[in-house]
Queue: 3 jobs
Job 1
Amino acid sequence: MNLDIKTEHSKEEAILYIEGEVDAYTAPQLKEAIEPLTEKDGQLVTVDLTNVSYIDSTGLGIFVGALKSSEANNSKLRLVGLNQRVMRLFSITGLDEVIDIEEGKKEGTQ
Amino acid sequence: MNLDIKTEHSKEEAILYIEGEVDAYTAPQLKEAIEPLTEKDGQLVTVDLTNVSYIDSTGLGIFVGALKSSEANNSKLRLVGLNQRVMRLFSITGLDEVIDIEEGKKEGTQ
Amino acid sequence: MTDHADHFEMKIPAKAEYVGVVRLTVSGIASRAGYSYDDIEDMKIAVAEACTNVVNHAYKKTGYMLLSCVIREDRIQIIVADRGESTEVSSLLENIGPIDSSKPVSELKEGGLGLFLIDTLMDKVEISNESGVAIVMTKFLHRDGVEQHVDGIPTSADKQEQGQKQ
Amino acid sequence: MTDHADHFEMKIPAKAEYVGVVRLTVSGIASRAGYSYDDIEDMKIAVAEACTNVVNHAYKKTGYMLLSCVIREDRIQIIVADRGESTEVSSLLENIGPIDSSKPVSELKEGGLGLFLIDTLMDKVEISNESGVAIVMTKFLHRDGVEQHVDGIPTSADKQEQGQKQ
Ligand SMILES: Nc1ncnc2c1ncn2[C@@H]1O[C@H](COP(=O)(O)OP(=O)(O)O)[C@@H](O)[C@H]1O
Ligand SMILES: Nc1ncnc2c1ncn2[C@@H]1O[C@H](COP(=O)(O)OP(=O)(O)O)[C@@H](O)[C@H]1O
């Protein structure tokens, strides 16, 4: 029921490793970790969801917010490592058509 | 919340591999697997609890019953592979003083 | 089909931190009722969405989320209710849908997907409004992989496609 | 210590198959309340023992197990109650103890360890008898590994030793 977030910075890329469940309780924690990164001009923000076992609409909303922020601030957001269940929610809601998403287990390297 | 039991027979030994949680719901299943084995004269019955994550008094009661049956029928009962939590319950209740128990991860070979 | 049913009730403080507890409980109940992994995951999301709505919209100050589950031979009915003062919620299910990808990103909404997900992930959804809001969510049990169409009610697979095409 | 408390209530059919659901729920609640892995495992056993007693002893036919939990800053109180017709249960806690290893194996009992485990694994246990049996189990929260002795109430470590020496 908890969320663990680790951030890694390389040259032009910030990678967030998310582990656990993203729901109404843990989403604020995710928002706090992502938003400041998307506010940096030219930044590539990669969010690795390999170890996310659960996400619901509050979590999806955080990614919509991050996408809007990245567009407004000229940064780039991509999600990688989504498992089938998590991917399914992005498809059902149509978010896969507006957010840059990569399924499977690939690590987030440029 | 479920229990999975596999039985392996060698020359003079029957080994039961138990996996899951032993409670009031699953204990009858365990009893059905152990009791007939303890009723065979000279049989060594080894119960491997390596993958048992939970046990409560109903499960402990099954082992008391198996011990009584093995004594009455001249068979032998031993429990192996108990993790710390499960071992603790056998100690608290004093069952470790009447049942042949081996902690840790060793497999049940003579 | 017999009339036999098992009833569960639960009352939990309407706080975001406890939505996960409701998910755990529902997954335990649904697992006992024989549902598949995927169906259980769908129910966990639906029930969490309904609870999150209680946390976010039902009470001015504090209150409770009321969960009840009824297991029948061929279905589970999950009701999430509150004792808030909201009115006119019966039309809520009319304005739901997925993200509109033709819109500019800056106009996308961060909320508003909860009821849509509930409606998509469950087989049958009703909202009523007596003393607070109650959302009644039904999932049918398809034993042995046999898909059942009862009275033309779509299976979850149909529903999902429907959701994606909307 | 403030007066703040979070209240949970649950009503489940008194069937063995649902005791695991209560365990799941209690582990979720206790986890949110900040208890350690070992404390949570202890509570799961205690609450399962109490529920199993309801399943086995409370009702002639069918009935419900009633769970309520109260989380306070320094403790969790878990109550398992039934609406059975049992009377004179207040003395139940007096006759409990571990296995007597000096007895011949053939005289060992297969039951009777449930209340003993509850008493050993929880910090404080009371049984009352109004409309059915209610067992009130308390576990104190020791934040940051600091052991708290409140009013001489033993910590779980003390209790465990006590149990083994009985
Ligand atoms: N339990 C409830 N009490 C009051 N209003 C509710 C309740 N559930 C849903 N609503 C209303 O329905 C709207 C849509 O809910 P939903 O689709 O979950 O999206 P969101 O909660 O993100 O707004 C909410 O904004 C709210 O106005
Ligand atoms: N909820 C209850 N309703 C009626 N009797 C109970 C209840 N809980 C416990 N008891 C009584 O207390 C006795 C001891 O319980 P316990 O220590 O759990 O062992 P066991 O259930 O194996 O007999 C039971 O045999 C029963 O007579």
Job 2
Amino acid sequence: MTITVQYFANLREDIGRDRDEVTVTGEVQTVGDLWRHLHGAPPARLMAAVNQTHARLDTPVADGDEVAFFPPVTGG
Amino acid sequence: MTITVQYFANLREDIGRDRDEVTVTGEVQTVGDLWRHLHGAPPARLMAAVNQTHARLDTPVADGDEVAFFPPVTGG
Amino acid sequence: MAVRLFNHAFDPWTLVRERERRLPLEGFGACAVFAGRMRDFNEDQDVRALFLEHYPGMTEREMERIVAEAESRWPSITCEVAHRVGAVEPAETLVLVAVWSAHRVAARDACSEILERLKHEAPFWKRERLADGSQRWVEKNTPGH
Amino acid sequence: MAVRLFNHAFDPWTLVRERERRLPLEGFGACAVFAGRMRDFNEDQDVRALFLEHYPGMTEREMERIVAEAESRWPSITCEVAHRVGAVEPAETLVLVAVWSAHRVAARDACSEILERLKHEAPFWKRERLADGSQRWVEKNTPGH
């Protein structure tokens, strides 16, 4: 399946790009699997969204999803 | 001693005037004494001020004081 | 501190903006405001007009005392407080409490505290004129805490 | 409900006043507002400028969700919420939350709740430029409850 992955704030800077377009096998079933597939162990306080809705590392991912990873938010 | 007494809101309307200038004897020592001297038993929830500061019925009064009686306040 | 009584309609947002022109806003990251207006209903009845009686002299002293005590409890704040007196039409502003602080918690808490104390301690009394022409004194404020 | 993102400076009081022009204010006796500004200090250091990164699309959805959930919890309220994105100078407004209601408790509680949820749920990230030219990401918001 094909997934668009976006990165924000210091994660984007640390990774060195703002997005990945990835094609993954059935072994990647969750948001956490996707991060581990791309970057190894997830950092503390990693936040995620699937299709622009807050998600957890155990949230399932599906073909065509837009997944985002970011640090804790600091607006307001 | 001479005391200026003011009334506000429905108390002013019930009493029919907005102030009294009264000269009282030493038997009137407190705000409550003053009300009883002028009007008898005090109504429930009677509020008072002496010299424009909130007072209680047992607050002492002195010659020249400005005493006010009013119902619970409803500003804001 | 600025405490004001108005015997005519005033725009709360103009007061707030004018006060901000004189503040070093870089230091005041938070502003909490409450504006209270005259509603056209109260206790299930239509209210056509309001008269706000007050105790000249004591009202100003009480407003200043309430704001001074808040500024003493939250030393980082600065305040603008205004209250209407006299004849008021529906939708006109009755009370404005604006509090600036470096941080939002102090601004918000002080704004609430000043409003509640104004409602329960400052000598104002509301007389309502109802749709049938009768008048009534408002007996007490709704609880806010 | 009105939710807006600005990529340039905006005056919060003008937004509030313009919204009020379209409200039947006789029914909304209470208005609680919070305006947050950029301070020129944070964690004991001088801050010269701020960049507010956001997640286009999700940010708007989150703001709308937060306000819709508040309007569902407090059915009597109506809200105006605005947030800044991009490059910000000290004293410019970062966030505005204005809530109107018939009664003050709902206006005040909803205003606080929306602000706290914006700070903890809406995808914005602050990057500060310090006096020495270095930059840092703000790691977390100060607690507000």
Job 3
Amino acid sequence: MTGLNRTETVDRLRVRLGDIEMKNPVMPASGCFGYGREYAQFYDLSKLGGIAVKATTVEERLGNPTPRVAETPSGMLNSIGLQNPGMDRVINEELPWLKQFDIPVFVNIAGTTVEDYVEVAEKISQRPEVAALELNISCPNVKCGGISFGTDPNVAADLTREVKRVSRVPVFVKLSPNVTDIISIAEKVEQAGADGLSMINTLLGMRIDLKTRRPVLANQSGGLSGPAIKPVAIRMIWEVSHSVKIPIIGMGGIQSPEDVVEFFLAGASAVAIGTANFVNPYICPEVINGLPRLLDKLGVNEISELTGKGLMR
Amino acid sequence: MTGLNRTETVDRLRVRLGDIEMKNPVMPASGCFGYGREYAQFYDLSKLGGIAVKATTVEERLGNPTPRVAETPSGMLNSIGLQNPGMDRVINEELPWLKQFDIPVFVNIAGTTVEDYVEVAEKISQRPEVAALELNISCPNVKCGGISFGTDPNVAADLTREVKRVSRVPVFVKLSPNVTDIISIAEKVEQAGADGLSMINTLLGMRIDLKTRRPVLANQSGGLSGPAIKPVAIRMIWEVSHSVKIPIIGMGGIQSPEDVVEFFLAGASAVAIGTANFVNPYICPEVINGLPRLLDKLGVNEISELTGKGLMR
Amino acid sequence: MSDHTQEKRAAKTEEMTVISNTPVADGVFRMQLEGTLAENMVWPGQFVHVQCGPGTVPLLRRPISICDVDDQGRHFTMIYRVEGEGTRLLSQKIPGDTVNVLGPLGHGFPIEHRQAGEHVVLVGGGVGVPPLYYLARKLVQKGVNVTSIIGFASEAQVFLDKELSQLGPVYVTTMDGSAGSKGLVTDVLTSGEMDSWDALYSCGPLPMLKALQQLYESGTQEAYISVEQRMGCGVGACLACVCQPSPDAKEKTGRSYFKICSDGPVFDLREVVL
Amino acid sequence: MSDHTQEKRAAKTEEMTVISNTPVADGVFRMQLEGTLAENMVWPGQFVHVQCGPGTVPLLRRPISICDVDDQGRHFTMIYRVEGEGTRLLSQKIPGDTVNVLGPLGHGFPIEHRQAGEHVVLVGGGVGVPPLYYLARKLVQKGVNVTSIIGFASEAQVFLDKELSQLGPVYVTTMDGSAGSKGLVTDVLTSGEMDSWDALYSCGPLPMLKALQQLYESGTQEAYISVEQRMGCGVGACLACVCQPSPDAKEKTGRSYFKICSDGPVFDLREVVL
Ligand SMILES: Cc1cc2nc3c(=O)[nH]c(=O)nc-3n(C[C@H](O)[C@H](O)[C@H](O)COP(=O)(O)OP(=O)(O)OC[C@H]3O[C@@H](n4cnc5c(N)ncnc54)[C@H](O)[C@@H]3O)c2cc1C
Ligand SMILES: Cc1cc2nc3c(=O)[nH]c(=O)nc-3n(C[C@H](O)[C@H](O)[C@H](O)COP(=O)(O)OP(=O)(O)OC[C@H]3O[C@@H](n4cnc5c(N)ncnc54)[C@H](O)[C@@H]3O)c2cc1C
Ligand SMILES: Cc1cc2nc3c(=O)[nH]c(=O)nc-3n(C[C@H](O)[C@H](O)[C@H](O)COP(=O)(O)O)c2cc1C
Ligand SMILES: Cc1cc2nc3c(=O)[nH]c(=O)nc-3n(C[C@H](O)[C@H](O)[C@H](O)COP(=O)(O)O)c2cc1C
Ligand code: FES
Ligand code: FES
């Protein structure tokens, strides 16, 4: 390839999420890539369009008991919980290391009270390495009887507003799919100032072992991810993208360049790949490398042209 | 096998759904088996534990435009709509034919207003061939802006109450999984007099064709069924069975005797098989025939012992 | 949905054994499968519903037409184009592998009323050509004269032309003129070079069937078309594959819809709205 | 998580070719795989993460221990029991098929500090025995004397006993006494018939590891165990496979958890809470 062609290839994949520029639309999804160190042994992380790191909380969390994963048809369940070393260690040990790759870092933040979220958001968003916060609203809200922040439009909007107030970087709200009406949650969150949306988080699922008669996961139920949930993600992104103006990072079962384009047509402006990293540690660069050829096949010059270009029937 | 053994085998699979006796726990799911005629060419339908027939409405319905099905990883989408010949022809042409098999017939009923449902329920439930009604509450409620009856606990409960008022047979309410809180819907519906629950109906999903850039389904989105949704079904049945006392017919991706037992442990008292009929027209009798051996392996005498015997971890 | 009665033998499932599976054109494969099911495949125009992989991906079966059956009814042939995941998996099968087949399904081409000496035109496009081959063989066995008009995108896609030419005259058309005459199958029909015919049987892509309808709908010549639609069950139970009857057919049959898998795939040309 | 440094070569993925795949005991298979990855498998006790099928069912890889590597580093062996869908699919592979392997992964048994003439006991149970074979070979190469104690359910499940006996004395135990002595591997350890040893290395089911911990935790003898847990990524990114450090280890390492896939699977016996 000549230098000229190479530049063109790079440009074709460039996307913008509001003020955030990404040289390609593919990043690993939160919780599926640690803080990047493990996958750095397989390839140069600067190839990525961005990186979403594991949910970060005020204090260290040890997560749920094991077993924490189970296999389902074309999917997996996880009940990792919010295990992470706490924001101070993330700030001191992980973020500086990530700086070398010069890619936008999305820090997924979590908590059990609004105050928790605000504290993490304030502190993390001051770090120069951080491009955006990803607000994980699927967490149980201890002040509301443990019901997830993400299931009530007003609760989700209030949380968004408070976090926006303190954040120095754009805030993407990561929506839970386990809701009756994702559109109204998205709309409220947009009104509350969210700069973008990430969707979808995992569906709630469960498996029971026939021999022990107990749930396979020690936590009983867990989050369903992987190709099995892709049609649900596509439907929700399609619906939401027709109702909000803020950009959407799409995720849920992506494992090929074709999947990426399907998410773009549904309304995504960038994508995240989760579970597929476990199947193929090279999946992110492979998908990125495969995109230009697919765009050629589809007669499309720049991938950003495809966002929301799915047509009604 | 001696006659004696055969009798024992039959008894081992017997289940009760309230007053309804089934000689085994397996029936085809509504919409996946027509009114039985097509599958009668493959085997004797009297082998089934029961049969759930396609949604029936007051008038004939022609359903949605085609294409109506799409493939997804370990699942499928359908947007058949409520196509059916209307209650009068069901009563005159289909139910009398089903009588010969002497198995409980569950008539799935649907409508767009409470009055619709009541009219179908009243008329259908008078037929001696009908063992129970299965109330499909996933339909859009035209009087409430098209939002499905199944997404609001009170709307679902009101509908249940009205249908119960006129029905001469037990009423099973078929719950939609596309809700934030399925427990409260189940509880309300139980309080409103439901004799049982069927769960789960399909998850809402979508696929987009990369070439045409349009949804694969003419109706844009459709219902996701098949193995992909099994973990969601197990989770919901587990949750609901810990909150209600009425029996549950479990469904969602069942394709083996092992799946049946998993649904029982989660809380089901019988099961329905949908999508798997399309893959293997003999799936229902094959699963039924495979159950005794599995029970042996698990050291269980009667399958009914397993309902709700999943243990907490 | 034709009035003509025809022998329709029982459908069942069978793990059939692959005898051969070889490319016959660009991206198009011919697979021969052995098993007892073949002896039930007596009616040309029927199809089989094929499980392409062992697990749940792909989940659904794929409908493929019966292209030929040997005279002893021991094996049958299907010809398929690699479109997506299902047909891709099929193309990887090697002799000795098994494929789970459900069939024979549907109503085929009505031919029991055909008389020796009649002239029949078969009009096929792309992977719509395969069922016409078995049809041609059956017609020739009855002493019917058969002319085939088969269209493809370009030369690399052409197949079954030689086999059909052993049964009667064959006109090949390609979109780019790289083989046969340039143009569409309907160009041949309207060119005037065709002898007059007693009946037309067709299978091919929707635009081709629509063009045929436009040509002949208002006339009275006997004509049948085989229609495609995405399918679920393939046996008439799920209502995935419905199509609309023409006003006439609606009145005549009292039917508000047809199921392509079980009422079709073959319909009278004037019977369905495409 | 041992203090000992050991050569750990890079992990990557490779489509490796099946050289052989044959049963070695009831429901247990030995598979030999060829590819360049083998030359990185220099540390006994590491594992590979194996894709068992081509599609998305099963979705996740399966962790399997490295049982042996040929001296040229051209192929390696794994021995696995058919448990569920993944291992069932593996068992159907035939020579010439490929298997996508990710590895070598994890921290193996620390042996670089072992001295010639030392006496080491290897304690294995069921499909925990395989990694001990490669370990035994490496130890014997260093001049270390190796005694193996391996336990199985019954005679039909016994494997690797002959291979291990070429490297040193082997005690076989079975639960039902159908082969070797009746009882558990720990019975042999506590029977008094064992010579004194300098270190113990073990891999096997959780109850076995727990019994070993109970026997030796309070002592000072060098002992290592290889621990199993359900895994996601296998490389330390997803936190599926965590286990808790013992209070001592927590203090010493400052770690609040270990990842079995990347900190282990081999740990100091006194380092983890089982
Ligand atoms: C009655 C009938 C007979 C057919 N006979 C032949 C034949 O002889 N040779 C041949 O090559 N093709 C034939 N087809 C088309 C063939 O069924 C599709 O090409 C095939 O299903 C594509 O599957 P896939 O997994 O490769 O593609 P994908 O696009 O991945 O399939 C996705 C889904 O769409 C369905 N689908 C895609 N295209 C079609 C289509 N054109 N018609 C129906 N369903 C479709 C598939 O069955 C599957 O459910 C026939 C179709 C019908 C309805
Ligand atoms: C480090 C390590 C090394 C291992 N080495 C061997 C070996 O050399 N030989 C051997 O036979 N087995 C070994 N195992 C166990 C082996 O991984 C499981 O038997 C296998 O994953 C079962 O997969 P399945 O699809 O057949 O069973 P299923 O029960 O269908 O698997 C379902 C899911 O559970 C996981 N799982 C089930 N059992 C286990 C288990 N015991 N440990 C971890 N995950 C499990 C699977 O990986 C899969 O994700 C090892 C496990 C670990 C963690
Ligand atoms: C093991 C695992 C851990 C995850 N942890 C988080 C998390 O900490 N925060 C979060 O917002 N999402 C988390 N997710 C959800 C993913 O980021 C993603 O939304 C989801 O898995 C769907 O994408 P996929 O199908 O590509 O995996 C996790 C998913 C998995 C499988
Ligand atoms: C083609 C199709 C048609 C269906 N039609 C109906 C229907 O009319 N009424 C209803 O309550 N459920 C209907 N369902 C849902 C099924 O009864 C069942 O709840 C669902 O498919 C989950 O089971 P499965 O995964 O075994 O298919 C339909 C499902 C399919 C696939
Ligand atoms: S495919 Fe099911 S009715 Fe035709
Ligand atoms: S399996 Fe992912 S961290 Fe160990």
